[in-house]
Amino acid sequence: MKTSGCFKRIMALFGAINFCVALPARADVWYVDASISVSGNGNSWATAFAKINDAITAAAGSDTVLTAPGIYRENIDYLNKNLTIASLTFTTGDTNYISQTIIDGGLLKSVVTCKNLSASAMLCGFVIRQGKSNDGGGIFCQNSNPRLKFLTIRDNLAHYGSGLYCTNSSPVVESVRFVHNESIRTYPYRGYGSGICCENQSNPVIQNCVIADNFCDTKGGGVFCSYSAPEFYNVVMQNNAAVSVGGGICCESKCAVRLVNVFIAGNLAADGGGGVYSFDSSPIIQQATIVGNIAEARFDTGDKNMAGGGLYMYKGTLTLVNSVVTDNLGDYGFYMNAGTPTIRYCNFFNNETGNFFNCGQIGVNTQVNSNGDPCDAYFNTQLDPLFVQPAMGNYRLSNWSHCIGVGIQVINVNGQTITAPIFDIENQPRPLPSGTSPDMGAFENPNGVFLPVELVNWNARVLGNDVELTWMTLSENNNVGFAVERRIPGKEFSEITFLSGYGTTVEPHSYAYFDRELDAGAYDYRLQQIDANGGRTVSATIRVTIQPFEFDLFPASPNPFNNSTRIIFHLPHTTQADLAIYNLNGCLVRLLVSAYLPVGRHEMTWSGKDEHGLDVASGCYICRLKVGDRVQIQRLMMIK
Fold first, then answer.
1. Do the Cβ atoms of 390 and 397 come closer than 8 Å?
2. What pLDDT, in 10s, does the model give residues 252-268?
3. Is domain 453-546 classified as CATH 2.40.50.100?
4. Which of 19, 217, 238, 594 is 20–30 Å from 548 (CA)?
5. Cα→Cα distances 510→12, 199, 474, 524, Å
6. Mean pLDDT of 349-378
7. What is the mean pLDDT of residues 570-590?
8. How much is the pLDDT for 548?
9. DSSP per-residue codes, 542-570
């Protein structure tokens, strides 16, 4: 499956970052070029090594190994040296060199081995592929804290950490794509963490990364971690799968993972926790969008739990803040087996079976939030988040989403202060605008407050002694309807009618109301839009003036027209009125009315037919209204 179009911008950001740096003195740079036929001494491009391992052997502890585009079929080992091994992305800032510079492990062992490295070591600007190992098919880190930047780690195999394996290691991982890696089970080993596996006090910082389309034979389709405290910022975990638990991420055994600005979507776990699985751990998740994950027995491996389509918790203290959990499949959006969950300022909606299981008062509405929406005692709502275009992978919040502006900036949970990040997953300021409350989910909407109804074309037109009020909505959210209010200037508004709304819809809808037989004078009109929860939004006020009543023929509508047009006229008193259609030669085409009519407004429709019921030709016609000895005319344009 492809990564959602909603995140193309995130991917583009990786390429937009200028990572160009100054190289050390020439003696500290070793050059590698896979295209040369005879390996040189590595002192220049003209005498470059043919293999990266040759340069590593020759280099001293802090040297740079710079590689030209090409395919390097080898398994490299840093040999305990704090080297910078990089493609031309490192010197030029051009991320196109990533796909052109490939280290292929040939399914022999780990593609890259990092042991006993400090934070000064770096791997930058490569495709890391075709590794195969018990631990770390792509990259193996032991007692190491290297910087891993601008990489694509793909098509690697391992039992633990097919893409990246960390043991007692805390690398900084930035702008890396983990895709199509597979954690395999071979007795007595199981498959854990097909994208990333962190164990034994590993605390990596993982930011601006994509972990997608990875498959795990046991736990952690995207990520597995235990006895560690990894941190994830601005990360997409999408379309990963696990035969057992944790389709997106599996946290076990005292794991204190932190997930900030994360999009966890479309992941599958056959035995619980489609998006997130937590066992005896204390993950903190904030500003997350967890959507469309599945906890379902898709693999024939015996009895299956199938609980927690979005999140599953067993023991521990999982914390979820400012997040959206919606449209997940499996028993409940959040399934709590045992433990102490803290869920604050979140929105759950349309999760299979229900939103919450065994969560006490979480999800029991007892009050309203700052938007006036029903919520529980912890300000969690259960409303449609109204994403922009979820069918096309766009999970940003639309302008009328009730998830806008109802998050919290700073909250204390179990003695720990949690602060909303200053940017969202797409590097947009949060909150937006400044001074408002942050939104729920990974994406910040530019509106500080939600727009319950997008109202446009609010107009009033005087037709004799009548006023025609018209308006349109481009979208509606929980819209009960509109109270139409009128006043004489200087007086109070009063309701004159109520028109029902369309509930929640992203389709445009038109409304109209005629306020009839008014006395001459000025009038003000306004609308009050009413939400399902009783909230009201007031429109702009429109003032009209009705002149002393006179005989009048108003503009036909529509004009020009195709099938029919509406003709409206007013009479000052009961009288004989003749309304007819003529061609430009003055010949009668159709007599619409000839009768003694009462005072007031009258409306006729001409459907473009003559006296014999035949369709007239396209062209210009004259509409003529005769009242007594007075005549008014207007031109009509028929277009077929």
1. no
2. 999 999 999 999 999 99
3. no
4. 594
5. 40, 59, 9, 21
6. 94
7. 89
8. 64
9. EEEEEPSP--EEPPPBSSSBSS-EEEEEE
